[in-house]
């Protein structure tokens, strides 16, 4: 009787042991999933890079160097330098917004200074500050680094902010342009045949004055008059 009872309890014992093994494996897999990969997470919202671009464009002391990098879709690194009497250079690591400064290294009247606003990023910051000229910023192949264009020079609208378009001289549809703000409204005036223009997209637009109608759509002018 005792032998039967012992044997009858063995399957339950093995099942409990099997469950513990499964739980242990799940725990290990969770630890690995959180520890592997770059500093970003697949759940991180995409960074809106446009405020960083505007900030870089408006910086006065950036005639020597003005570069932005998006790192692992979790932070933005700004490296700039210029011919200024003081504060001639600065390197800053941001979080999701320009207001979220993680660390900075910059020139000052008292000499070079480094500030860590978030100590958890100290190692990352030190690597970036030491390797701003390297293509991978010294981070190695385990990180995704995208260089962001901060210049207003462009060839297509893709090189401009969402509120801008790549403005070019009439007739120069494929040439170099400059990012400018799209007009929000156009002058209300009678449109005659002489006011019509042909856009670089092959469509006819009205309001030749400043090519406003086409500019609102982010389109440059191929020639005056209607399209063929």
Describe this structure in words.
With 228 residues, this protein is an alpha+beta fold. It folds into 3 domains: 36 residues; 99 residues, no CATH class; 72 residues, Wheat Germ Agglutinin (Isolectin 2), domain 1, CATH 3.30.60. The chain has a 6-stranded antiparallel sheet with strand order 5-4-3-2-1-6, with helices on both faces. The termini are far apart. The N terminus is likely disordered.
Low-confidence stretches: 1-15, 21-39
What's the alpha carbon Rg, rounded to whole Å? 29 Å
H and E order: HHEEEEEHEEEEEEHE
Shape: elongated
Estimate the helix proportion, in percent.
Answer: 25-40%
Measured by DSSP, the beta-strand proportion falls in 15-25%
- The order of strands across the largest sheet is 5-4-3-2-1-6
Number of helices, counting only DSSP H or I runs of 4 residues or more: 4
Largest sheet: 6 strands, antiparallel
